[in-house]
Fold:
Amino acid sequence: MISGNAKVCGVIGNPVGHSLSPLMQNYFAEALGLDFIYVPCNVKNNQIEAAIQGIYALGFWGLNVTVPHKQSIMPYLKEIDQAALSIQAVNTLVRIDGGYKGYNTDAAGLYRALKGHGIEVEGQDCLLLGAGGAAKAAAYMLMEKKARSITILNRTFEKAETLAGEMNRLFGREIMTAMPLGDYEMLKKDSYLAIQTTSVGMHPQVDAVAIEDREFYKKIHTGVDIIYTPKETRFMKLVREANGRAVNGLDMLIYQGIIAFELWNPKIQISKEITDKVRQMMEEKLKG
Ligand code: ATR
Structure:
């Protein structure tokens, strides 16, 4: 039951109607019997500052931030966590004295998802497909968790170069290199952990893939697509058909939400049982 003292959290985005976060966060609260409610808030792009002031005045305890506000919200925060500063994007806010502190739970969410599937990062040669916002969180995680080497393949080479330069500087190690997408035949190693962060292959363009050549997939022992609609992307299919292991992005979505929930409710840990139940609910919802 929601009382007059309920902790109120929500998600801001534009649009926000497709978000699975209300389903997930309200399920966590219900399963744990917490006095907590999570609401969707559609905020126009030129209303960010007003929205932050408004939710603070209304007493909101926390927020998730989704597209297109993850960067534009940063100037209006009181504090920003180091990982979020490095990734240059905030997806979670926690109320502090006088405003909000911004966090990014995408990198840690991706790591927990990989852990859950028994996928190691430390010591691995990694491929990152894409160099956009989602790639930054993945790049940060791969660096932080001590990958051996990371090659970014991107259609726009300059963006990959910039991202590699930033990450190498940040971590003080020259292990990230950039490559134009079309040069994948020049990859030196023969067994990679690949993380697919481009938007190619997302519903409704389910037959699209950034690299079609089956030879490329022979070099991938594990392929993680951060897309979760469709459940199996063409990228994942090509990885599997070349005898690799493939994982979609649903667990990353779930774990970034779990980490946010745990930031808002510091004494709480979401159990495996609740995680499995929420995954099942979200899969049902995505089936339509
Ligand atoms: P997000 O925040 O979801 O990562 P983004 O910042 O717009 O979104 O990044 C999208 C990524 O998908 C980029 O790496 C983009 O490549 P470019 O940097 O060359 O734009 C990649 N991408 C999108 N459409 C693509 C396509 N048709 N082929 C190859 N890469 C594509």
In short: Residues 130-135, 154-156, 159, 181, 197-200, 210 surround 2'-monophosphoadenosine-5'-diphosphate (CB under 6 Å). The chain has ten helices and twelve strands. The mean pLDDT is 98.
